[in-house]
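Hey, can you fold this?
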Amino acid sequence: MGWLSDETGLDKCAANHVPLTPLSHLRRARTAFAGRTAVVYDNHRVTYAEYHDRCTRLASALAAMGVASGDVVATLIPNLPAQAEAHFGVPACGAVLNTINTRLDVDTVAYIFDHGGARAVLADSQFIELAEAAKAQSGSDLQIIEVPDAAHGWPASGRHPVYEDVLAGADPAFDWHMPLDEWESLALNYTSGTTGRPKGVVCHHRGAYLMTMGTPVSWQMTLQPVFMAIVPLFHCNGWNHTWMMPLLGGTLVCCRDITAAAIYDAIADEKVTYFGGAPIVLNMMVNAGPDERRAFDHQVQVFTAGAPPAPTTLAKMETLGFNVTQVYGLTETYGHVTECLWRAEDWDALDQNARSAIKARQGIAMPMMEDITVMTDRMVQVSLDGTQQGEIMIRGNSVMKGYFKNPQATQEAFEGGYFHSGDLAVQHPDGYIQIADRAKDIIISGGENISSVEVEGVLMAHPDVNLAAVVAKPDEKWGEVPCAFVELKSGANPTAEDMIAFARDKLAGFKTPKRVVFCELPKTSTGKIQKFELRAQAASLD
């Protein structure tokens, strides 16, 4: 028997076991990096001491409004300081953060308010009418706190308490509610509704903390990086990067509207060294005109995920001074959980096209994950030949607790001891994963998932439509956009513009089909629509 066979008295206690939480990063940073710049947005520049104070005041204000531990607080805010502060201030009062996609329609936001049970919502003035309409439709009594941005054309409406006034009246000595158990819920993120209504993904403090510890290793980050928040903070909490910045004493650069000019300006003026973004952002940078570009003399590290970027785009980014690393993940995994870890000794000597082809792979598991692989439908490992397709299966610390109020979907997602991603991929001889196709016909547009089923359901409600099928059409700017193939009823003759307008009234703009083709839909002998044929047609359209 080993010498530890008798562990009498070797128990967990307050001295040797503290629940893991990303909140601890900012509590430490208020001392370790007190005078360093924490957050930048135009003329808004706060130190870590000030950042901590503002987050504390937000927590205090929410508690004073009656928000209790376990309650949900939502946001409808672009990547601005208040959105970053909510990532710490909301859980610091014991609540669960629910960042909502600002591009969603009223009906979906109302559903999220109702399903999540939000007690309060922080809403940017640009989206205040969306918040009001969704609140009215849901019948909720949630408190709206308005976050104006007058300098960018969005002054306060005057109908709700204003964020800065709320902070000013709060208690700066409020004692943060740190989790008693790292399994406590930290965030509630709704998927894009790949089977109709969005599912609520529940994330815990432990997973987010370990994501913030693993990401700097994968990204080879050192202290005090300058990071620009481009991935929307409503999308997997911005891949957890905002929670990570205080760990490193980094500076978070906020940006309201993501444009090539804004990114180049931040790189040149603020010396941004890191950012993450969907392939649409890479295309934006590559295709920027001379009047949008700025010269810079340092290399910028980029994480990209979403629809796999074209190798040619990766090659062009390299020549512009950006080192792009392909990553992969889902809302259910807090964001990225694989990385295309670069093997310099093997790949540096390859020509640019060959390097870019390798960089387009999704790669291997990041440090906080246990196992990420590709399996058949019987959960058997596929051959490592780069040819046999299977489903990406994920196991590790940064996997969700489950789907809120949906135990059946949770059980199905975790069947066999792995999270079933729903994404089809191959695995190369070196173990690197590469996505081959998207399961369930998900369309990824600008990094956001679109359910073809949802769009089809809207089109099928048109009185002239017999059948509708929606697939992804390649798009230079967005990566993919929805393309609708519509079979009309006899005698009907609406225009494509009519169909698009009909859909736009019921869907968020990014979900609305950008192209409509009228035809008889190809079907199997059993009546199933052959979407692979439609994808081929969509790819050939101008």
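Oh, and this one too while you're at it.
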Amino acid sequence: MRPFLHFAALLLLAAPALSQEAKDKGQSNADRQKAAVEAGYATAPVEEQEVRSRGSVAVDGRRLPYTATAGTLTIRDVEGKPTASMFYTSYTLDGQRAGSSERPVTFFFNGGPGSPTMWLHMGSFGPVRIQTGNPEFVRPAPYPVAVNPYTLLDKSDLVFLDAIGAGYSRPLGDTKASAFYGVDEDVDAFARAITRWVTKNARWNSPKFLFGESYGTLRGGALAYQLQNRGMALNGVVLFSSIMNYGYRQPGLDQIHVNYLPSYAATAWYHNRLPNRPATVDEAVAQARAFAVGPYAAALGKGQLIGEAERDQVATRMAELTGLSADFIKRANLRVDLPRFQKELLRGTRQVVGRLDSRYVGYDADAAGERPDTDVSSEAISGAFIAAQNDHISRTLGYKTELLYRPSARDAPGFEWNWKHRPLGQSQGQQNNPNTAIDLAAAMRGNPYLKVLSMNGWYDMATPFFGAENDLNHMMLEPAQARNLRFTYYPAGHMMYLNPEALAQMKRDLSAWYDEAVDAARSAMPPQAPSVAEAGATPPN
């Protein structure tokens, strides 16, 4: 779901395919790897790499020393054949309880699909982050990267994973990239990588959390059930700027317009375009929610059979909530899509609002057009994050490779996403437009201790918060399971951590939620017998 800068020519040079002549010779994986190296191509390693360094960060007056590891995880199929190398960066606490098998660990991933996890890595809850502030263009280098007092390292060890084809993650040998470019293919790769990290680091007894952003929430829903089905029950899943159900995005369906209306109201409130502006954004959103699920949904459901009087009434109220004119709304058949809203809201000022974050404003070459030329909120931050990620990995963490860090797998050769999804453990057949809230619901029904936190930005126009509410509130959970689902909201956009005030509040909310999730599992444990060491026994070799 995230727009990216297009570096197609550079990306093609970064991981060129072997010649057709070499392919036709039927070489083994080892021979192909050797041939690529001899030809001077940059390739991902089959043998796992690991570069460690030390750092520290202060959280609430407490100094936290940590070990940072930049490296790769080799993904293998059921026969042990290496199929891909997934790049990761981890931060594990040193000192007391260092290496404890019971210390929580969180696996982070961005979305796309096809995005590396540089956004969460360099912007959110790692021990360092790029400093951001007002919703405006981040000025060019040098970029302000500093220690992060809002890191989650005090609550959990942190592992940031890059999807195959993105960052430094690549397929290996004769495995085609298409083997990872799909809903279920991608989930399987992450499940194998997480299992490998847990096994390699002896963390099977650690409380485990997933933290996905954007498309990463769709991945997270299916991944939670996949891991549980493979014997790895989770303590918690964080859904950050959620989109769980792509079915609503099909042309001709009205639910997407219902989902967007409260976000339009929040954006109009922020830019002071409402004729009777409520005192707070919460009030503006509450009014829009009530209208969206009531008169607005009913009107859309009537299609062309709606009467003129009802059309006028709905358009008038919609204008009061969104800042658009009733005439414009009626000409759009009461269905204002996102690009038109971005362009129309501030048309009198010749400005457009952002998609990832509608607090951002910019200008198009043509102020009379009906759709923005680009997403100003993406352009404002992309260069800073790409530069900061490359500098942090290579200079600060000391990881060296000839590969180019891809800002997106979408620019890689052969990228074409397979959107089909088959939920495990469900009687229904294959989905052509994925809805992994079904998978997450199955995981929550199977694991009564699984906590789910949905974190949402008022000004996120890429994955509107009302859409997340709709998706997650249709999981058909029983009351006991529904109590494990929680929603929080912040005055920010898709990447809520760009707002320092929102970041501080998110850290407070997450700290309390982590404590609750871990305590819920521990409080349900039976009285423990003495450990092997306490009993004076010798563990088996």
